[in-house]
Amino acid sequence: MPSYTVTVATGSQWFAGTDDYIYITLVGTEGCSERTLLDKPLYNDFERGAVDSYDVTVGENLGEMELVKIEKKKYWVHDDWYCKYITVKTPSGDYVEFPCFRWLVDDKEVVLRDGKALLPKDDKTTLVKQHRHKELENRRKTYRWREWQPGIPMSIDANAHKELPRDIQFDSEKGVDFILNYSKAIENLCVNQFMHMFQSSWNDFADFERIFVRIKNTISEYVMQHWKEDFMFGYQYLNGCNPVMIQKCTKLPEKFPVTHDMVADCLEREMTLEEEIEAGNIYIADYELMEDISPNSTDPCTLQYLAAPICLLYNNSQSKILPLAIQLGQTPGKDNPIFLPSDGQYDWMLAKIWVRSSDFHIHQTVTHLLRTHLVSEVFGVAMFRQLPAVHPAYKLLLPHIRFTIAINTKAREQLICEFGIFDKVSDGGG
């Protein structure tokens, strides 16, 4: 009688193994096997990181392998199992691999196709066509859309991380890593000791050194030494955490009436400001999005403020980006002056600090949260709902959205929710 050798790989992450019963059914173009229990006498099957092989005997050759069905049934208590892949060796000696890379929870059954990337037009039999349709039908029930808040991109329908499908939750190691990193950040920032610094005014610049005392490195120390200097302010526009705000200035906006006389002392090429603009040496960063946003009140005893600045930058003859002029509001006027490097030391320093403050808010909420996290989740949920596992685009996209939906759900649960971390520490609020 024909015999098929089935090799089963269990994941190596924590708690991936199981003591539950695992059954397999092989499906080919000419027939299917009996439902077979995968079990070796006096052997602990499906341990974490194990690769186990079993023989499945059939009455007749099954033809070309099409599907593998795995079932998990409770032994004592439900014991989740992470299956990496199953390889089937046919009687003719061919090997067919069926990628799984998912959790089997409760009394769950999973039907797998082989690992070849295939489009719908490549499906030749009714069986695999039905499998493609059924897979997406089940996925759409599992990965549902929700509008978390008006204006926020659509997200998965889950209020908490524990409500997510098991396959996209943090695995145990990632979850522990997340908690440890969070705890380490709290410890490094000495938040428990210095929380009042985040909720009220700073006393002096030495407070910064006390906050960063435990995460010093060469770069952080260099920035601490030079942060007041114009070259470092400009350097961060290209090499800081938010290098997307700086834009080539082709014409000064009317709302930012900088003149040549204001900045002539800073220009190095014996050109007028207009000529420097035409030569491509002038850049601009506009924080218009911050206009009309009400500041938060993390501490009722301390007034907080927000600015919507515009900053003009200059690419000098040494190819360094330097600030030329800063206006802290969007509407020019007597109460909204243009600050210059020639102003008093602390006036100019404070103007730059206000720009950095606004850059922080735009980076956190727009560049990072919106355009990195939330937009990626839209593609992630759409991928699960629209692309079966055999689709080539699914195979390409899957590694890039790993844990994306999980971390976003954590953010909605803890970071940007009402009374979340943003509400507590950011003057932009949640």
TrEMBL record:
Residues 117-430 form the Lipoxygenase domain. It is found in: Cytoplasm. Ca(2+) 1 binds at G17, D79, D80. Transmembrane segments: none annotated. Residues 2-118 form the PLAT domain. Fe cation binds at H368, H373. Binds 1 Fe cation per subunit. One of its GO terms (cellular component) is cytoplasm. Pathway: Lipid metabolism. Its cofactor is Fe cation. The keyword Transferase does not apply. Keywords: Calcium, Cytoplasm, Dioxygenase, Iron, Lipid metabolism, Metal-binding, Oxidoreductase. InterPro entries: LipOase (IPR000907), LipOase_C (IPR013819), LipOase_C_sf (IPR036226), LipOase_Fe_BS (IPR020833), LipOase_mml (IPR001885), PLAT/LH2_dom (IPR001024), PLAT/LH2_dom_sf (IPR036392), PLAT_LOX_verte (IPR042062). GO terms for molecular function: iron ion binding; oxidoreductase activity, acting on single donors with incorporation of molecular oxygen, incorporation of two atoms of oxygen. This is Arachidonate 5-lipoxygenase. CDD domains: PLAT_LOX. The keyword Ligase does not apply. GO terms for biological process: lipid oxidation. The record marks W103 as: Essential for stabilizing binding to COTL1.
